Amino acid sequence: MLESFDAVLLARIQFAFTVSFHFLFPAFTIGLASYLAVLNSLWLWTKDHKYLDLFRYWVKIFALAFAMGVVSGIVMSYQFGTNWSVFSDRAGPVIGAPMAYEVLSAFFLEAGFLGIMLFGRERVGPGLHMVATAMVALGTFFSAFWILSVNSWMQTPAGYSIDPDTGQFLPENFWEIIFNPSFPYRLMHTVTAAYLTTAFIVGGVAAYHLLRRRRRREQPSEATKTMFSMAMWMAAIVAPVQIFLGDLHGLNTLEHQSVKVMAMEGHYESHPNGAPLYLFGIPNDETQTLDYAIGIPNLSSLILKHHWDAPLDGLDTIPDEDQPPVGIVFWSFRIMVALGFAMMGVGLWSLWARWRGRLFEAPWLHRAALAMSPSGLIAVLAGWVTTEVGRQPYTVYGLLRTSESAAPLDAAAVGTSLVAFIVIYFAVFGAGTFYILRLMGHPPVFGEPKLGEVVKGPIRTAGITPAPEEAVRRPNAVNPGE
């Protein structure tokens, strides 16, 4: 049955599935690592126990999400050799070094300090524990730095030459490769999105407990109220910044990948006297029209060119074989933008409730925050769909086509591994996500238990040597730290 499918399409679906599943976890842990660093520093500064309780509460969730992010990310590296060996051969001389630096710097930094952050407060002292927590947060940022640099180079290649004999991309200028034209904008936009993702998950968890305590006519804990307050400050401040950064990223994309912007805007036709901003429509690639279009005249020109009647080219200037699938790009972009403005709306709403002194007594705000808790994850996925599908039909934009990048595999081989990935991912990571949701279902309490106190049995860092009988009876005596 699988032999009737296209092997390249199946390879694309497989990579899209694994990378989408994987990025949900880093999108959360990048922001959560920084949040933990802030909580730990506030605890050391104020000695207010609610910050320590929140740190202990969220560090358990971070440990699980970080582990699932690492495991789900390993699979993608193998796909470069199995499904995309031609791409690896052609682009490897350029992208191999940054990907190696991600492991050597970011991952080693995270892994080296993660154990101290999780279990070492009493063992190494508060100062070194704070350093370890900050290093883990810095490591997550470095990881995003290198991976986004590689992706951005594939979008806007620079600093290379092409070997006429082998067709390989050869590095000529390291700094131009790393800091390629779209990288600074993509880095700021993606990292800020990760912070917003974490803010709305944290805010949604806090809102859930505020609503539950209200239903039970109980007073919420100071830790829960602080958690909600910090999340809403983040939403109110960062969401407008994210929209501004998204606009800058869009202008950069217009300069270097104008075809992607045409697909995002649904501009099948050129507009010499100002282009409309289409709010709704059904893209039709066969007829090259946007059916049932509803738009605002000239607003797209004003946004993209900052002039009311500035001309904008359409897809009628691009050969059909060089166009991306417009329908996917058009709608994923609108999902991302709509969620961005909804986030800003919740942030502004929280400012109004805070000004009135009702931030913790506003049930409709809490319901909205709870409903918006997965919005960051959805927006991040929609943004990556816009970026990656909008780049088609290329892996290295304008230079190497996707159809020329795949390994010479049969559709049955790719399809079989795809089915296996789907089954295993939903079983393993579904169980892990379920457990994270169970942890979130319990509110932070005064004297929140340490990570070592919730792990059943002794914690081993290596080998299979059984713990002493006394340690099995009293595991906290072996693991007194966090």
From TrEMBL:
InterPro entries in the record: Cyt-d_ubiquinol_oxidase_su_1 (IPR002585)
Keywords: Cell membrane, Electron transport, Heme, Iron, Membrane, Metal-binding, Transmembrane, Transmembrane helix, Transport
Pfam families the UniProt entry points to: Cyt_bd_oxida_I
One cellular-component annotation, GO: plasma membrane
Membrane topology (UniProt): Multi-pass membrane protein
Keyword Repressor in record: no
Transmembrane segments: 20-45, 57-80, 100-120, 127-148, 192-211, 223-245, 328-352, 364-385, 411-437
GO molecular function, one term: oxidoreductase activity, acting on diphenols and related substances as donors, oxygen as acceptor
Subcellular localization, as worded in the UniProt entry: Cell inner membrane; Cell membrane
BP GO annotations: aerobic electron transport chain
Main subcellular localisation: membrane
Similarity comment: family membership: Belongs to the cytochrome ubiquinol oxidase subunit 1 family.
Protein name: Cytochrome ubiquinol oxidase subunit I
Organism: Paracoccus aurantiacus
